[in-house]
C-alpha cells in the first residue's frame, strides 16, 4: 500500500503506540457497547515495554508517521492478536489491512496455522474489516457484559 510501511515496533515508538491505542480504544469502547473501559486505556509504558520483549509488536507508518499498531503472541501453532489500533484520523486508509497482512506473515514465520482475536460484535466496522481479511466468527459469549466474539483466520 502506498506510503505505508509495517515493521517491528521499537522502544522509541512507545509514546505514539500508547496515544494511538488510547484514541482508537475510546472509539472502540463507544462503538462496541462495552459496559466498562477496556484495560488498553490504562496501559502503562512499562507494560508496553514488556510486550515489546515478549510479543511481536508491529508498528505501521504512513508517510513517515506512526499510524497503527497491533500485538501478536505465539503459542502452540496459534497467534493471538491484540491491541489492534489505527490512528482514528487515518481510518479507511489501508493501514489496518497492511497491519493484518503483515501479522499473517509473522504468524506463518513463527510456525502458526491460525490467528485468533476477540472483539465486540457491535463494533461493526471492525468486524467488517476482520471478515474482509479472512477472519470468521467461531464463538460468541456475553461473559464480559457485551456480545464478544472470537474470530479466527486460518493461514
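^ C-alpha cells above, recovered residues below v
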Amino acid at each position: 500500500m502506498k506510503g505505508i510501511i509495517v515493521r517491528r515496533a521499537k522502544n522509541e515508538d512507545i509514546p505514539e503506540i500508547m496515544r494511538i491505542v488510547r484514541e482508537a480504544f475510546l472509539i472502540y469502547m463507544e462503538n462496541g457497547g462495552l459496559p466498562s473501559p477496556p484495560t488498553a486505556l490504562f496501559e502503562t509504558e512499562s507494560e508496553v515495554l514488556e510486550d515489546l520483549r515478549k510479543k511481536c509488536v508491529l508498528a505501521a507508518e504512513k508517510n513517515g508517521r506512526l499510524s497503527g499498531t497491533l500485538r501478536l503472541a505465539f503459542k502452540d501453532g496459534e497467534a493471538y492478536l491484540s491491541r489492534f489500533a489505527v490512528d482514528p484520523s487515518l481510518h479507511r486508509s489501508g493501514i489496518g489491512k497492511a497491519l493484518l497482512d503483515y501479522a499473517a506473515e509473522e504468524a506463518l514465520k513463527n510456525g502458526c496455522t491460525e490467528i485468533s482475536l476477540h472483539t465486540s460484535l457491535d463494533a461493526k466496522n471492525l468486524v467488517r474489516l476482520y471478515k474482509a481479511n479472512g477472519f470468521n466468527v467461531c464463538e460468541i459469549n456475553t461473559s464480559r457484559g457485551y456480545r464478544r466474539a472470537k474470530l479466527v483466520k486460518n493461514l
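The longest strand covers residues 65-75.
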